[in-house]
Design goal:
The structure holds two protein chains of two kinds. By secondary structure, chain A is of the alpha/beta class. Chain A has two domains: 244 residues, Rossmann fold; 133 residues, Rossmann fold, CATH 3.40.50.920. Chain A contains 15 helices and 16 strands. Chain A is globular and about 70 Å long. By secondary structure, chain B is an alpha/beta fold. Chain B has a single domain, classed as Thiamin diphosphate (ThDP)-binding fold, Pyr/PP domains (Rossmann fold, 3-Layer(aba) Sandwich), CATH 3.40.50.970. Chain B has eleven helices and ten strands. In chain B, the strands form two sheets. Chain B has an eight-stranded mixed sheet, with helices on both faces. Classes of the chains: A alpha/beta, B alpha/beta. Chains A and B meet through strand 3, helix 3, helix 5 and strand 9 of A and strand 1, strand 2, helix 3 and helix 5 of B.
Chain lengths: 393, 301
């Protein structure tokens, strides 16, 4: 193990290198660029024996990964925002082809207006494509989750693509000390891909094909079943990763000081770190609050979220994106999970940190204040007045 | 008796789902004869998606990878990258796309593949419209042709715009090899496929693919119409190796285009003036081709 000072972007690059990705393909977009620049350097110096295909669009980047995966190669790509939106059609192809691609996404706001700040709208918009989705809180978590994502994606029970998402700038361009495992350790944890149902030169086979309703439904059901097996396999992968590296990221929904809490705030991504410090402050003041972090968003960890209903009567969800015509998307997911819980806590959705706006300790404190107040609202835009300026229309 | 030069191996099964007289089916059959079984074909949305027959059957004795409409160029870049990194030797990587999937929606990915110098063969089988979706005009539909989206009635006179010059676009990328092929001339077709097979680098084959239901001619006339296309100069046969163009079929004099046009219902509304206009364009294109060939020949190697 080596301790390095790495940005969240370089954490992606180092993880792809440690995973011995064989085919890499990408198209530049801010703030993803430093991930692929570093990988280009690794390939150029021979540190990574991969083919790096520099394409003319993100659409083509994903197709290169799908086709390379169809021959059995381990693949990696990275993108952000508009680039991810352009890939949308291909994301369905990747999961439908059962291609275990791993993709790093730097979460960035969607235009218009142009904005390169942190925002989850890009990946949330890909929620229904059949991809596994992880959201990272720290650069260490980025590196470790990419390695875990390969194990999970390539597991014979899963065989699904996975994206590892990190907030623009808060992670992508912020450096932190990161423990980089030795290649031998990673090789033991993540052996070469065991290719299944891939094309072999000289053999008759068709991947993709077309069907009527007679087979199509069955293919979709297999895809759904593979998604359903993710939580169990992920738990196994986490245990093996802990044994291999000594690091534990505490599963799909890590919690913090939720015992005997009156109110629990649910976060995703970097807002979690801020919220954790606020929980400590509030606990010191004698207020019973806790925190839960959604690390695995797809498939949604329903069981873990239902467990929160046992500890708190009030649950808040801080969303870094908005589903127009509905509330925040994570809040919607939490609400759906709580519907079948034995106890149903009051739920408040908060919208915070859109388009790179900071989620400050002050604002997190206001969220807890709102949650603990007598009549918490169902939805709430947190920082409209304080940091923003008036917008016409 | 002349020796038959076309390989006897058949890599296309007889139970395919093509229409009778389909030029696209002949294109695939002849292509695979020349390439052999160690071939992987990336197939976008096109007639061949359906011709290849539905899951769990296949009409081809090679590996097929389906890809979305616009992504064929990228797909063959990915296949080649994987074949190289996994040490797979002697495998032909082929993209097999229609004219819409190449000249319209797939143009960006094709350009990318050519510019990246991907070591693969890109085939455009050209039936000059979106035939799988029911005869809508494409960038490759010729001027004046009737399609369901370029109707003929009143002032409407078929497609108002001329056919896109895909060979010109491809040649601007300086491919390792580019050629026009016509199933009506199978010996020339096979020779070009085998030549393309043995060249390293980006290769492009523009294959003429007559479509009886789309062009409105009898399915027994595909070969006769194909010959007319080349012998009138509408679809001349040539190849470009390392930038040097050579015409591979020359007849003494070009036949009148009228013979080609009148054989198809999609041009039934053509007036004598229309025919004369096409004749002048074909003549000019042919002369330019001959001129280019002469210039390339005189250039020192």
């Amino acid at each position: 193990m080596t301790r390095k000072v790495l940005s969240g972007s370089y954490a992606q690059s180092y993880a792809a290198k440690l995973a011995r990705a064989q085919v890499i393909s990408a198209y530049p977009i801010t703030p993803q660029t430093s991930i692929v620049e570093k990988l280009a350097e690794f390939v150029a110096t021979g540190e990574l024996a991969a083919q790096f295909i520099k394409v003319e669009s993100e659409h083509s980047a994903m197709q290169v990964c799908i086709s390379a995966s169809a021959l059995g190669a381990r693949t990696y790509t990275a993108t952000s925002s508009q680039g991810l939106l352009l890939m949308h059609e291909l994301l369905h192809w990747a999961s439908g082809m059962r291609a275990p691609i791993v993709m790093g996404v730097v979460n960035r706001a969607v235009a218009p207006p142009w904005n390169i700040g942190a925002d989850h709208t890009d990946t949330i918009s890909q929620r229904d494509t059949g991809w596994i989705q992880f959201y990272a809180e720290s650069n260490q978590e980025v590196l470790d989750t990419v390695l875990e994502a390969y194990r999970l994606a390539e597991d014979p029970q899963v065989r699904l693509p996975a994206m590892v998402n990190e907030d623009a700038f808060y992670l992508s361009h912020t450096v932190e000390p990161v423990d980089v495992p030795d290649p031998e350790t990673v090789d033991r944890f993540l052996p070469p891909r065991e290719a299944h149902a891939v094309l072999v030169p000289g053999e008759t086979m068709r991947l993709g094909s077309f069907t009527g309703p007679d087979h199509y439904v069955e293919f979709r059901e297999r895809l759904a079943e593979a998604n359903a097996r993710v939580p169990k396999v992920f738990a196994e992968v986490e245990a093996e990763f802990r044994d291999a590296t000594g690091r534990d990221h505490e599963g799909a929904v890590p919690t913090y000081r939720v015992d005997d809490a009156d109110a629990v705030l649910v976060t995703m991504g970097t807002a979690t770190t801020t919220a954790r410090s606020v929980v400590d402050e509030l606990r010191a003041e004698g207020r019973k609050v806790g925190l839960a972090k959604i690390r695995l968003f797809r498939p949604f960890p329903e069981d873990e979220v239902q467990r929160l209903a046992r500890v708190a009567d009030r649950i808040g969800v801080a969303d870094r994106s908005w589903t127009f015509g509905r509330t925040g998307p994570v809040a919607t997911e939490v609400a759906a999970a709580l519907y079948t819980a034995p106890r149903r806590p009051a739920l408040t959705g908060f919208l915070a940190g859109i388009g790179g706006r900071d989620v400050t300790p002050h604002e997190v404190r206001r969220m807890y204040d709102t949650l603990l107040s007598r009549e918490a609202p169902t939805t709430h835009w947190v920082d409209l007045e304080e940091q923003g300026v008036k917008v016409d229309g | 008796m002349a020796k038959l030069t076309i390989p006897s191996q058949e890599l296309m099964y007889s139970g395919h789902a093509a229409c009778p007289g389909c030029g696209g089916a002949l294109a695939m059959r002849l292509l695979l004869k020349g390439l052999g079984p160690r071939t992987i074909v990336s197939l976008p949305a096109c007639c061949w998606t359906v011709i290849g027959t539905p899951y769990p059957t296949t009409a081809l004795r090679v590996g097929i990878l389906d890809n979305p409409f616009e992504a064929t160029g990228a797909s063959i870049s990915g296949l080649r990258a994987a074949a190289d990194v996994l040490g797979m030797k002697d495998v032909n990587i082929v993209g097999f796309a229609g004219d819409g999937g190449t000249a319209d929606i797939g143009l960006q990915a094709l350009s990318g593949m050519l510019e990246r110098r991907t070591n693969a063969i890109y085939v455009m089988y050209d039936n000059e419209a979106y035939m799988n979706t029911g005869i809508q005009r494409s960038g490759e539909t010729p001027w004046g042709a009737w399609t369901t989206t370029t109707p003929v009635s009143g002032d409407l006179h078929g497609k108002p715009e001329p056919k896109k010059d895909m060979m010109g676009i491809v040649l601007a990328h300086r491919p390792a090899y580019a050629a026009t092929l016509n199933p009506a001339y199978p010996e020339d077709f096979d020779r070009k496929v085998e030549r393309a097979r043995d060249i390293v680098g980006p290769r492009f084959l523009h294959i003429f693919a007559p479509c009886p239901p789309g062009w409105k001619f009898d399915s027994s006339e595909t070969i006769a119409l194909g010959r007319l296309a080349t012998d009138t100069g509408v679809f001349p046969l040539y190849e470009v190796v390392d930038g040097r163009l050579a015409i591979t079929r020359k007849t003494g004099a070009l036949k009148p285009v009228e013979e080609y046009l009148h054989a198809q219902g999609r041009f039934h509304h053509f007036t004598p003036e229309d025919v004369a206009k096409i004749q002048a364009q074909v003549r000019e294109s042919w002369d330019r081709l001959v001129q280019r060939e002469r210039e390339d020949l005189s250039r020192p190697h």
